[in-house]
Amino acid sequence: MILLRRLLGDVLRRQRQRQGRTLREVSSSARVSLGYLSEVERGQKEASSELLSAICDALDVRMSELMREVSDELSLAELAESAAATDPVPVPVRPMLNSVSVSSGRVTIKAPAEAVDVVAA
Prior knowledge:
The protein is of the alpha+beta class. It has five helices and three strands; from the N terminus they run H-H-H-H-H-E-E-E.
């Protein structure tokens, strides 16, 4: 099952880490407790729209950009979930599929030694 709160948390964490900022810095700027922000990033808590707005302001990221990235992640997760239902990826391989990109309807999933292209119909 795909959990939206996990995808949202992953995207928020990546945004923060891209900026080289700590949880403490962002939580202070967003006026959110450090523990709560941590739980949101780990997908353990659902963030309200007000909280997301405060975090986006603290990260200087538009909420629409955040949601677009979450939407892209959701599309990939749905694609992977449907592919797994028809042709499961062996468990030892899953952790290696860590780099995913989308362009012109083509999904590229990069493993350490190779790239696999999946074209959505």
